[in-house]
Design goal:
Length: 768
């Protein structure tokens, strides 16, 4: 084949040399606009995994690269006068110029033709090429020529950064956070050769402008950074190699995702590679890693399918399918890390103590978990666990293992939870006339005995017409109250758990069949009339609810008050007001479901007016010493609906009204929603609300392991973790998960104690 790589960065060079090495008959040309052995940029960072792959595919160049690498294990964080360090992180860095020089020399050695100082304007400049690699960077002319085909999704991120260097040597990957009168700056610092370190300075757009850096030239910007980080630099100057750029050289990061990566232009197959196809933020240093791995995977596909030109379509199809998944994984982690730095000042730096700030930064990408930190640096993590436990009020004895964060106590008003794990409210649809029956006693009682600190029954309806289905629980009469008292008495007498009641009204999502008979499908017999914020059916064939008037509002508020009083009399420890998932109070909060033109529609204040009326009325009758949480849908997952920014506004309102916690869920407001699922996918909403509003939160959604819960709580992304489906599969989820991580101090019910040692011994035996 005749192969042309447009762009002599890591992707084009490495693909060129791999293809020439594996099939010398190819005619491979790399075309580069810069001069030979010349490039811009400072250091780049590789992972051990990428280095292992390079060693497999071309050990000759890998050996030279490895010799030029600078390796370090430590991360050091400078923050609020503290210097914290942890080890075991295994980074390798190399100068970008050095890396490209090595790859250029290897290409020449293998017979790849290198054409420098050549500007390429189009892939059509190479009509004889069978395959054109568009590795021409983020500003790819090739990609831009076929926007309709490649479907680039470009997003300019809000932070500003300047990429500098210094001759001071740093023996750890160093993060330095500095507060000014106008906001926070952070420096990302790492050594990449025996003389030079990369020194990236980042800040928000507002802070950037407040310091006048938008009108500063490069020299003024460098002088500003040298002054700000003077004690870290110890007198060493900062340097730039971006004199070719006009202005201050402060940039915005641009996130790129393409809908398609390949195209046939009528004469050649064209495929995107490296930054032309995707970008990953420098917060996890993965741009070069992705480029190298692109080159390896495309080469691997030719090895599988064959090196003839007629195999190109199949090769490109499989290449894109495989790399799209891997790139998405890295981009998601890079996005998490990037967003952490974008909000570090307003969300973390001013609120978290230095110890927790360090943990939050280490786990910012959510690829590094609690137990992964233990593998990297057990001593550091155990020290942090001791700090967290002491911070939670525990007396940690010297030379003993501390409890992990999820097992520390949490206090809200006068209610103290023995740990941080909650059994989520989960609809069972198994009641008759709203009454707690033997099923609920066994179901909820067994989960209370399973070790969770707070056990919620399903959404409990405040009136017969507030039910989702005929099988929902209720608290609209005293007979139902007696069932709750029986349950509360059992929980309090036989377990250390607290009992929670989530009060709610189904609104337009009511009068439906039991879930297993047709979820969300309207009843065919025994239906009842519906009410909502506006006259909008949930499904197209659902009944149209009545838009509530003042009389309806007064009745619903009174029903909530009466139910709350019954819950208190029954001995319930914790109340939650359901303002999520498209039910009645949620329908007022979301602009998708609230189309009112009176004082209960329009602005945030108006949309929250009735839910807040209900909350204040309930708070007034609920015992002062017991907490109330509010469940919010923090994202409607549909254009025009509420976003996490709206959730912050509503959370502040409920906090001011007396809410003790916000239970951060999302979705189920609009049937056509398009949620983005994933591990811990709703935790960012909890993180945002907790650290921007300053109110404790409950995280929910795809939390299924002790490692998840410990990571969330330790980082300050939530104060409690609500676990749903895993508790359906395993009523003793907490006891089993703690045993898996080697914690033996969690009490089991005395009736089950004989099984505890056997369970723990079996786990130890299996781990050998």
């Amino acid at each position: 084949m005749r192969i042309v790589c447009i762009g002599g960065g890591p992707a084009g060079l490495y693909f060129g040399l791999l293809m020439k090495k594996n099939h010398p008959e190819h005619q491979v040309t790399v075309v580069e606009r810069n001069r030979p052995y010349d490039t811009f940029g400072w250091g780049v960072v590789f992972s051990d995994q990428t280095m292992d792959a390079m060693n497999k595919w071309d050990p000759e160049s890998a050996a030279i690269i490895k010799d030029a690498f600078n390796h370090w294990d430590d991360i050091e964080v400078l923050f609020k006068g503290t210097r914290q360090r942890t080890s075991g992180h295994g980074f390798v860095g190399i100068g970008r110029k050095k890396l490209l020089n090595i790859l250029q020399a290897r290409c020449e050695e293998l017979g790849v033709k290198l054409k420098f100082e050549t500007e390429v304007n189009s892939d059509l400049d190479f009509p004889d090429a069978d395959l054109v690699i568009a590795s021409d960077g983020f500003n790819s002319k090739v990609r831009n020529a076929y926007k309709d085909v490649f479907q680039p999704d470009l997003q300019q991120r809000p932070n500003r950064y300047i990429w500098l260097g210094t001759n001071k040597q740093f023996d750890a990957f160093t993060f330095d956070f500095r507060k000014t009168d106008h906001g926070w700056f952070q420096a990302h610092i790492y050594k990449f050769d025996d003389q030079t370190s990369t020194f990236i300075v980042e800040t928000t757009e507002d802070t950037f402008k407040a310091h006048g850096l938008d009108s500063a030239d490069q020299d003024a910007s460098i002088a500003f950074c040298e002054t700000l980080f003077a004690d870290t630099l110890d007198g060493a100057p900062l340097m730039t190699n971006a004199r070719h750029m006009r202005g201050s050289a402060w940039l915005n990061f641009n996130r790129l995702i393409c809908g398609k990566w390949s195209h046939f232009n009528g004469q050649s197959h064209v495929v995107l590679m490296g930054d032309a196809a995707h970008t990953a933020h420098f917060a996890i240093g993965s741009g070069t890693k992705l480029a190298i791995e692109d080159a390896i995977e495309l080469t691997r596909q030719f090895q599988i399918h064959g090196h003839d030109a007629d195999k190109i379509p199949a090769v490109l199809a499989d290449y894109e399918e495989i790399r799209r998944v891997d790139v998405a994984r890295i981009q998601n982690a890079a996005r998490n890390a990037m967003e952490w730095f974008e909000v570090v000042g307003e969300r973390y730096a001013d609120t978290l103590p230095p110890e927790q700030f360090m943990y939050s930064m280490l786990t910012r990408s959510q690829r590094i978990s609690h137990e992964n930190l233990r593998l990297r640096d057990a001593k550091w993590l155990e020290g942090y666990e001791r700090w967290f436990a002491a911070h939670s009020g525990l007396n940690v004895e010297p030379d003993t293992r501390s409890l992990p964060p999820m097992l520390t106590p949490f206090k809200a008003r006068d209610v103290t939870l023995k740990n941080r794990i909650v059994v989520s409210p989960m609809a069972m649809y198994s009641a008759t006339d709203g009454l707690i029956n033997d099923f609920h006693m066994v179901h909820l009682g067994s989960r209370a005995m399973g070790g969770a600190a707070l056990v919620f029954a399903e959404m409990t309806c405040v009136s017969p017409d507030a039910r989702i289905t005929p099988g929902c629980l209720g608290l609209w009469n005293d007979e139902q109250k007696e069932g709750w008292k029986r349950l509360a008495d059992f929980v309090h007498s036989n377990t250390g758990a607290k009992l929670g009641c989530q009060l709610g009204h189904a609104g337009r999502k009511g009068s439906t069949k039991l879930a297993w008979d047709g979820i969300d499908q309207p009843l065919e017999e025994g239906a009842w009339p519906l009410i909502s914020a506006s006259a909008l059916p949930y499904l197209k064939h659902s009944p149209v609810p009545k838009a509530m008037d003042r009389t309806d509002m007064d009745r619903v508020k009174a029903d909530h008050v009466a139910a709350a009083m019954r819950a208190a009399e029954a001995g319930v420890d914790w109340l939650e007001l359901h303002c999520a998932h498209g039910y009645l109070l949620s329908s007022f909060l979301s602009p998708l479901t609230n189309r009112r033109e009176d004082e209960y529609g329009g602005s945030h204040e108006n949309r929250a007016r009735f839910p807040l009326e209900v909350f204040r009325a309930v708070r007034e009758v609920w015992p002062e010493d017991r907490p109330i949480s509010v469940r919010l849908s923090c994202h409607d997952w549909y254009e025009g609906g509420n976003t996490p920014d709206d959730a912050v506004i509503f959370a502040k309102m409920f906090k001011d009204a007396g809410a003790d916690l916000i239970d951060c869920s999302s979705g189920q407001v609009w049937k056509e929603e398009k949620p983005v699922y994933g591990r811990l996918f709703q935790t960012p909403f909890s993180d945002k609300v907790r650290n921007e509003v300053g109110i404790p939160t409950i995280a929910v959604g795809a939390i299924s392991e002790a490692d998840h819960a410990n990571s969330i709580i330790a980082a300050g992304r939530a104060d409690l973790c609500a676990v749903a489906r895993p508790h359906l599969a395993d009523p003793s989820w907490l006891m089993h998960e703690t045993a898996k991580i080697g914690i033996k101090s969690v009490a089991w019910p005395k009736q089950y104690y004989s099984a505890k040692a056997q369970y723990e011994n079996n786990l130890e035996r299996a781990a050998r």
